[in-house]
Automatic annotation (TrEMBL):
This is carnosine N-methyltransferase. The keyword Transferase applies. GO terms for biological process: methylation. Residues 356-378 are annotated as: Disordered. Keywords: Methyltransferase, S-adenosyl-L-methionine, Transferase. Its EC number is 2.1.1.22. InterPro entries: CARME (IPR012901), SAM-dependent_MTases_sf (IPR029063). GO terms for molecular function: carnosine N-methyltransferase activity. It is an enzyme of class 2 (transferase). PANTHER family: CARNOSINE N-METHYLTRANSFERASE. The keyword Zinc-finger does not apply.
Length: 434
């Protein structure tokens, strides 16, 4: 992304509560290696050696070789941790480094660490007495796994189901408008992607020639997307094993230990060499805004700024979906389209029920808590797809397309697993009434 990594006038490091949260997120990535080893192998080794001795001795030998498998699991945790460490470094540079006194940093960092970024930044975190939360640790783990969906070649199976219909819909809207206005350029079509996650949908729409602004509230996702979009040096820079920490429902160990290269392409090089299908260079057409979607895009300065809004696996993060509809209506130009694809796994309901299960497309934390509107508002409601469509229609949109059960997709799904969770998301296009 050109010039700066995130747009917006809010400085999280100037707000004490927000600063504490940013530091917890940074520490969650820094702690990935240690905690994954503890929970992934240390605890399992203890449980294994608690078996009757004749049993664990048997299972230590071929064809079972459980202890060898645990050693392999340790190796793959280290591979995942290389990515987590890189996110920590990128996030530290973006958020914390600009606030630090260089002389103080030099005074606390041992000379032997001077050329090791991770150890320098980790020393600073230790002196600030930062401790992450359980929730942030779980989100860091989920974020590492999400790279499989958005930035591996194998994740294209899910991206084709969820992202391609959006890119195609924007392209069809452009073609329709160009018939009326032949001078229209692809860069003239401005698209907003709320809940941008790791940035792949933003990247794909930019690569198609359009101007795109991603929006994300999660610092985990912001730091991770910044790494892949702005700081990776080549395709396949990292190797991850996204299914290694889940030891259930595997047909064989190779399925559990399968490694995937990420990113599947180098975003910078790809955009630099993108076909000239737009008057503006790709780097001039891509930006990311950090903050609460409802707050940012309900403001007067966001009014009628976008030709299209694309929400993928997003609207069910709303405690009150009317807030989202109002924000979309405010920031869309008259006649603009809202493209939505996703299920209705109401995330706030999952948290309230304390089910303990990891929810796909995790809910975004209520950041920017100094503001009194947005997803942190009190109250909540869970609607059916039929009710969502009726509400969108009632609040100023005309539904032009609506299909269900035509798309079938997983979410960070292991295709070799004995357990397959499949979504049949609703896909619809609504046009803002003039």
């Amino acid at each position: 992304m050109a010039h700066s990594e995130w747009d917006g006038d809010f400085d999280p490091m100037a707000d004490p509560d927000e600063q504490k949260h940013v530091l917890s997120v940074l520490d969650s990535f820094r702690s990935y290696r240690r905690l994954a080893h503890f929970n992934g192998t240390h605890v399992r080794r203890q449980a294994f050696y608690s078996l009757p001795s004749e049993h664990w001795i048997l299972l230590s030998k071929p064809p079972f070789s459980i202890l060898d498998s645990l050693s392999r699991l340790d190796d793959l945790i280290d591979s995942n941790a290389e990515l987590a460490d890189a996110i920590f470094i990128a996030g530290f540079k973006a958020f914390l480094a600009p606030t630090l006194d260089s002389e103080w940093v030099a005074s606390i960092v041992p000379e032997k660490y001077a050329h090791d970024e991770f150890k320098v930044y980790s020393t600073v975190m230790d002196h600030l007495d930062v401790q992450t939360t359980q929730t942030d640790m779980e989100k860091a783990r989920s974020c590492v796994h999400q790279f499989y969906r958005e930035w591996s070649a194998e994740g294209a199976v899910e991206r084709e189901k969820c992202f391609d219909p959006v890119v195609q819909s924007v392209s069809e809207e452009f073609a329709s408008r160009k018939k009326v206005s032949p001078e229209l350029d692809r860069s003239d079509v401005k698209v907003l992607v709320p809940g941008a996650g790791l940035g792949r949908l933003v990247f794909d729409i930019v690569r198609a020639g359009f101007s795109v602004e991603g929006n994300e509230i999660s610092y985990h996702e912001l730091m991770a997307s910044s790494l892949v979009l702005n700081h990776t040096k080549k395709a396949g820079e990292f190797n991850i094993a996204p299914f290694v920490l889940n030891c259930s429902n595997h047909l064989n160990r190779n399925d559990q230990f399968r490694i995937y290269e990420i990113p599947d392409l180098h975003p910078g090089a790809e955009l630099e060499s993108a076909p000239e299908n737009s008057r503006l260079h790709a780097f001039e057409r891509m930006s990311m805004a950090a903050g609460d979607f409802c707050v940012l895009y309900s403001r007067e300065d966001s009014r009628e700024q976008f030709d299209a809004v694309a929400t993928v696996f997003f609207i069910d993060t709303a405690p009150n979906v009317i807030r989202y509809i109002d924000a979309v209506r405010n920031c869309l130009k008259p006649g603009g389209i809202w493209i939505n694809l996703g299920p209705l796994l109401w995330h706030h309901a999952s948290r309230r029920q304390c089910s303990g299960e990891e929810t796909e497309g995790e809910a975004k934390e209520p950041s920017h808590r100094h503001l009194d509107k947005g997803i942190a508002d009190p109250g909540s409601v869970e609607l059916t797809d039929e009710e969502v469509i009726a509400l969108v229609s009632h609040l100023g949109f005309a539904i032009e397309q609506h299909t269900t059960e035509t798309i079938s997709t997983g979410y960070i799904s292991n295709p070799a697993s004995m357990l397959q969770n499949v979504y049949k998301p609703s896909f619809w296009i609504a046009r803002k009434k003039v």
